[in-house]
Amino acid sequence: MANKATEYLQKVGTFFIATTEGDQPRVRPFGAVGEFDGKTYICLNNTKKVFAQLVANPKIEIVGQYEGGNWVRIWAKAVRDDRNEAREKMLELNEGLRGMYKADDGIYEVFYLDDAHGKAESFAGSIEEF
Fold first, then answer.
1. Dist. CA 104–CA 85, nearest whole Å
2. Mean pLDDT, the chain, integer
3. Residue 5: partners with Cβ closer than 8 Å, 6 or more residues away
4. Strand partners, 117
5. What pLDDT sits at residue 1?
6. Computed over its alpha carbons, how large is the radius of gyration of the chain?
7. Which helix (H) or strand (E) holds 51?
8. DSSP character for 105?
9. ∠ at Cα 77 (74, 78), nearest 5°?
10. CATH number of the domain at 4-129, please?
């Protein structure tokens, strides 16, 4: 069974990750998520600014909306995983990325969410904390 962070991110489909660049917040959409070794993973291209932002400050916040207008917020530290098997697993779990990346292409990166915790919420109040 998937952990709660993975479960909710798969439920929302497109989610938004907030990073920082100096004192400026940056938010961008993501969609690829998976679970490996019991941890929630995201992936990205190391030529993008988001990669440099995560290396400089790995603290992130994620938000996404799912069924019935409910939303989830997740706080975590994004930790780079340089293992080829982690990159391969994410490509296996996210088939749409296979045409763009290879596990050993030098630009494809995976990060897991360390100490991921969050809240599923609605306008009526908190649904679940994890």
1. 10
2. 96
3. 40, 74, 76, 113, 116, 117, 118, 130
4. 75
5. 57
6. 14
7. helix 49-56
8. S
9. 100
10. 2.30.110.10
User: Could you tell me the two tokens for 56?
Assistant: 């400089």
pLDDT band at 126 (very low <50, low <70, confident <90, very high): confident
Instruction: Please give the structure tokens belonging to residue 77.
Output: 């530290």
Residue type, 115: D
Tokens of 3: 């952990």
Do the beta carbons of residue 90 and residue 34 sit within 8 Å? yes
Both tokens of 120, joined, read: 């599923």
Residue (of 34, 27, 33, 32) closest to 50 by Cα position: 27
- Residue 87's identity, in one-letter code, is R
Token reading at 39 = 């941890």
Domain coordinates of the chain in residue numbers? Answer: 4-129
pLDDT tens digit string along 7-29?
999 999 999 999 999 999 999 99
Would you tell me how many other CB atoms lie within 10 Å of the CB of residue 96?
9
